[in-house]
Amino acid sequence: MTALTNVEVGTELPPLVLEPITRTTLALFAGASGDHNPIHIDLDVARSAGLDDVFAHGMLSMAYLARLVTNWVPQERIRSLKTRFVAITPVNAKPTCTGKVVAVDGDEATVELAVTLQDGTTTLTGEAVVALV
Amino acid sequence: MPIDAAQAMAQEIPPLTVAVERGRLAFFAKATGQDDPIYSDVAAAKAAGHPDLPVPPTFFFSLELEQSDPFAWITSLGVDLRTILHGEQSFTYHAMAYAGDELVLQPRIVDVTSKKGGALELVTKKTTITRGDDLIAEARTVLIAQNKGVS
C-alpha cells in the first residue's frame, strides 16, 4: 500500500459536498442503519414530542464523515473516529464535510473533522487518527 | 424521572452475536451515498485486496441495533425515546471486519451524569466488538436524555 506523502499540519482533505438530506434519505438510512427511532421518520411522533418536524440521524452525518476519511485513506488505516453532535440536522439541509490535519506524530496524523450546513451551522465536530503508512 | 446510576451501571446487557450480511452493507452504502464500489460490489472489494465487502467505519453502531428491541438498554432505565439526543460517538479500530463475519458485541453502561439540575442526563455506553478471540473495534456512545419537566 502506498504511503501518503506531503501530509503536514494544515493539510486539508478534499471536502465532501453532499446532496440535500430528503425524507427519502432518512427513510432509507433508518432501514439501512437499523435505527428505527420514529423521531427521524414519523412526523406524527416528532410533533407528539413538541417538535415541528423530524430531523436527521446524527449517525447519517457521521457516516458522511467516515466517507470523507475513507476517500482520503484506505479504511484499514483509520485508528479511531470520534464525533460530537453539536446541532440537529433539519430535513433538506445540505451538509459539507471537511477535515484538516492538526497533528502529525510519527506515522500517524490527527485530522480535525466538521460537518457544516449551507447556513453555516456546524452540526458535528470530531477527530480521526489515521496511519500514514 | 431521574436515572438510577447505580442500577444502570450494574445492568447486565446480554452480548449480541451478529452475522454481517453483504446485502445490508450494500444497502448501507446506498443509503449513505457511498460511491466507492468496494463497499457494495464484492468483485471490486476483492480487487482492492479485501476478502469480502468491508464493514464501514460507523456500521458497528448499526450492528448493535440488530435485535428486536435495540433501545431496551436505555428505555428500561425509564427514558422516553423521543427525548433522547445522540451526544457523542466514537470508535477505536483494531482490525477490519467483513461480510460473512460473525461478530460478538458486548455493551455496558459505564457512566450516568446529571446536568443542569437533572434537566439533562448523559448516559455513556461502551461496546466491545470481537470476532472469535480477536478484538475488532470498541464503540463509545453518549446519549442525552432531556427531562423537559425539570428546569
UniProtKB/TrEMBL annotation, chain A:
Highest taxon above the source species: Bacteria
Pfam families: MaoC_dehydratas
SUPFAM superfamilies tied to this protein: Thioesterase/thiol ester dehydrase-isomerase
Domain MaoC-like intervals: 20-106
Gene3D superfamilies named among the record's database cross-references: Hotdog Thioesterase
InterPro entries per record: HotDog_dom_sf (IPR029069), MaoC-like_dom (IPR002539)
Protein family: Belongs to the enoyl-CoA hydratase/isomerase family.
The protein's name: Dehydratase
Lineage summary: Bacteria, Bacillati, Actinomycetota, Actinomycetes, Pseudonocardiales
UniProtKB/TrEMBL annotation, chain B:
Protein name per UniProt: MaoC family dehydratase N-terminal domain-containing protein
Classification via CDD domains: R_hydratase_like (cd03441)
FAS1-like dehydratase domain mapped to chain residues: 9-137
Organism annotation: Thermocrispum agreste
Any Pfam family the entry gives: FAS1_DH_region
Leader sequence segment: none
InterPro entries: FAS1-like_DH_region, HadA-like, HotDog_dom_sf
Transmembrane segments: none
